Structures are given as C-alpha cells and as structure tokens.
User: What shape does this take?
Amino acid sequence: MSTILITTAVITGLCALFAIILTIADKYIANYGEVDLVINEEKTYTIDGGNTLLDSLRNEKIFIPSACGGKGSCGYCKVKVIEGGGQLLSTEKPWLTEEEQKNNMRLSCQCKVKENMKIEIPEELFNVKEYKVKIVDIEPMTDKIKKFRFELPEGEKIQFKPGQYVQIKAPEYDGNTEEVYRAYSVASSIKDDNHIELLIGYTGGICTTYMHNFVEVGTEIDLNGPYGDFYYHDDDSEIVMVAAGTGFAPIRSILYHMKDNDIKRKARFYFGAKTEDDLFLLDEMKMFEEELYDFKFMPTLSRVSEDSNWSGDKGRVTNSIDTYLENGGNYTAYLCGSPVMISSIVESLNKKSVPNEKIYFDEF
Ligand code: FES
Assistant: This one.
C-alpha cells in the first residue's frame, strides 16, 4: 500500500514539475518572433509573438472588455479566432457555450499569439480608448457606496451611450501585488463628455478596496471604454427601470439622457434597498420627477424597522413589478443588479406579458 502511495506521489510531483518547467520555458525561453495579427480582414499588425491575445491587442491600443484583468474568471474577453490560436484550453471551456466553441470563439486572455493569426472583433471596439483621468470629487452615497467624479485630460472627450460601462485599473498597492481592471457603469450624462461619474460599492475586492481606501481627489487613474450592449433604446413604450445598489448608475445616465434631450416617455424607476440608509441621490430623483415628462422614483424597502416613518413601498422590488405593471402593457425594461435579482424580475415581467426582446439587463 505504502509503495503505491509513494509511486503516486512521485509521479504527481514529476508531472507538476514538468508543467512548471514548460510554463517557465514558454515564458522566458520560447521565442515566437514577429507574427502578423489580422483583424476583421482589413487591419494587419506585425507584433512580437508570445503574449496573450488580450495583451497583444492592448499593446496596439485595442481594448477588449476584461473585467477580471486577464485572469480567466469573467468571460468578458471573447474574440472570434479565424486562424491560428492553437487548441481551445481547459481554462476557456467553462466560459464558452457549445455554439461559441463551434464558432471559434476564444478567451483572448488565455489564448496566446504564437503564430500568424486572423481574428474578428466588433467594429465598435476600435472606438474604445484609454484615458488618464483625474479624480476631482468623491462623495459618499451610503456607508458602502461612493460617487467618484473623474476629469479627462484637457481637450479629450469620451463618447458613450447612456447605460454603457468603462473599466478602471487598480494598480499595485500596499497589500495588493497585481494590477487589475474592473468594470463600472457610467452614472453621468453623455453630454458632459470631459467627465465620467461612477458609483463604486465597497466589496473588499482589489479594485473597490483601492478606490475606497487608497485614492483621493487629485489621484490619477487609468480608465478605458466605453463597452457594453446595455444602453437606452428609443421608442414610444413606457420605460420600466429596476435596480438595486450601484445598479443605480446606468439608470442615472439614462435619466440624464432623457432630460438633456427632452424625451417625452412615461418612466418609472423601481429601486430595491434594505433600509432608508441605503437610499441616495433623493434630491436628484425629485429633480427628475419635476423636470422629466412623466417620471416617478419608486423605491421599495425590504427591511423596515417598526419605529420607522417610512410610508413608501415595502418588500422586494419584484413586488413593485407585480403591483404596478398592467398585464399586456407596452413596456421596455432596463434592469441592473445581481443575476438572482434579474432572473426573478424577468420572470415577473414575463408574467405581465413583457417579451424578452423588450427587456435589457446589466448583471454584475
Ligand atoms: S479577461 Fe476575464 S476571462 Fe479573460
């Protein structure tokens, strides 16, 4: 018995050692020379081989969404590889549906550029830029959420659609030895194109710890964007907005867009929170109620104490959908929150006969 155990341990150890040697050799010894990277059959970049596709593209100032910073744990960095790229790796499979695997989609942070490659990316990613922005204001919203206002360098502008997101980079800091990019929805008006506002909730993660504990007014941050297919769509349906926590951000950007463009649509914003302390920007919501064509902010609280004077809605935000929406009404819904919250709201909306193609959501 002990001989079997020792043999197994030796073989396992040798395999691990071999894997480490291969990784080190690949990183420091392998020289792939220059390779051609062809994008969308029209642009060719001659680059040094050996880096991940994500890093190679970033070196050419082409930014692919990468909320986990290239760790293979967000699934955002999908790119279609037409030629080159080698075998699909086990680290990619969990993030790709069978359909995507058949269509040669790859995680660009896992796939290395070792030979000439041809890839396809959405045209709009060529509009994504990186900016060095400066924090010009920090305002606490709740005990966990802060609103940050960033200023772009003089003369630079960012163009985005209301509802889209950007990524910011947290550098190494005391207690953190890695740079990471994290995604945050833009909370401000697209008109104010020299500034960006973000709502960042403290989660204890690398980036939120950096933003809550290590920056101040004047700190410079690397920010890139815009990204995302969650944004305002114009038609004459009634708008149903549903969010919780920092999901408030993209809705706020959409509300500013409606105000700036005098959009005459009925809109209701159902915001789910636990207690009154979790509500914020109430004066601003009042301003939107006064200035927009037909808008109401309708928060609902799930934990109201007995001595509270709260006279608004109580319960989960799905109750608001059940209570206020008419079955068969002409609605378009914008949902921002956790996957669990979103799936229960989609269910409630479907019960009111809102079709999935009229439901846009931003999960985080
Ligand atoms: S960057 Fe997150 S999985 Fe590739």
